[in-house]
## 1
Amino acid sequence: MPSLKSSRATERVNITNKQLRVWFRWIHIVGAWLIGGFVYSPGRDAAWYVLTMQVGVIPILILTGLVMWKQALAGRWINAVINAVVGGKNRARV
């Protein structure tokens, strides 16, 4: 039986900046596709569809767009917040 130390669940996930940009780009593309479907489909009269766009898709597009635009600044801000919450500089950088 393998030990927990060697299990994949306890390993730290390392993601490169390039992989992060690719993920955010695809989220942005899918969100833009959903907005295009909203604008050009007759289903925009459905209340659930409008609410999904207003509460879900548009804020996600705004956040992914900002992170792709200012990735270095966003990374520094996230690290500062994590260090403030954890309370020390000895924490590994994200």
## 2
Amino acid sequence: MVLLNLLNLIVRFRPLWQLKNAVVKGVANTIKALDDLTKAATGKSIAENFDALKVIINAAFSVIVNVIKASTLFFKTLFSIWVLGFL
């Protein structure tokens, strides 16, 4: 009886599995089409463009970190003057 109920459930949910497969295939085809478009427009795949962005993002954060480090003395002086003003 349990096996029959299980088989009944599987048969009832089969259309959902087919729907899932259709969605997965559609998304995969869409990503492939976007990748082809990107290759035609830039000469690089989506992954290669993301790799190029990674270099730019790392460089930007490196600049931000260096600016913060360079401004430490300025803010230390500013806050010490500010604290003295409240004494």
